[in-house]
Amino acid sequence: MTAFLFDGHHIQPGEKFKNIVRIENYPYEIPYVVINGSADGPVLMLTAGVHNQEFIGIQSAVELAREFDPDHINGTVLIFPMVNRSGFEHRTMSYTYEDGKNFNRVFPGDPEGSISEIYAHWFVHDVFPLVDYCVDMHSGDNFEELTPYVYCQGNAAPEVMEKSLDMARDVNVPYIVVSNEYTHGLYNQAGTEGIPGILIERGNLSQRNTEDSTMMKNDVYNIMVGLGMLRHRKHAASTDGIVLSDCIYQMSPQRGLWYPRWNKGTYVTKGSLIGEIHNYFGEVIYTCRAETDGVILYQTKSLNILEDDVMACIGVIDR
Stretch 4-29: mean pLDDT, rounded? Predict the structure, then answer.
């Protein structure tokens, strides 16, 4: 086992190291933790707070960084518990405060672009080359009701997709969505760069609770056992998640008052009523109907709906 070099620091085998990284032309100091195991193994990157009000992922990452013991780990874990610090400290939900961009939509970034694009470019060029696997931890934002599920990479090299699906099967959720996106998101871009990864969704409405955080942490532990990174923990049986070939994001054509018809996790058929948008006089101005047979993975639950908001994300069920 050798030292792990990151941000100019040599983290020795058996060492846990926490610090902040300063990125050129980026105004925020980003916290990170490195747990360099005492035996050889892969490098796993854990990210949380890409969407800054999705607190289950953030809390889970913070707790995992404290719990991990280097003497029990094969390889290295690199944790970014607060990716979008700008948004977190300004409560902007999915967006970077300064440029109003969704950080999970700007990869691979641009060193000459806005600060979100500069930051994404740093991840791709300074972090990804160090990483063998990645897990991005998300949850329902403060307007999103969500049933637990996981995305795996569906538009990468065959060996990357196979390993990504293996990782997804170790997550204890009812649904696995094969994403056909190959860029723009952090874990999607990682797949394009040859890094198997997944995105876990767990938790609702920006709520923080022990049960969801514990389950998210157990997902990560189980993935690490599957990767051969944990020596003193058994592989736990996970639910045999239904593999969904895609998901359809049904977007709002206008703003108004939103009234969803169903709850998260409900199975719907193509053409069935999903919800209605009313104007401020209570009159129906748009009726949303399912574009496919599938399951409601998440939906807007708040009364207000914005133009181009996701009314519902429906996981496609192949018949």
Answer: 94
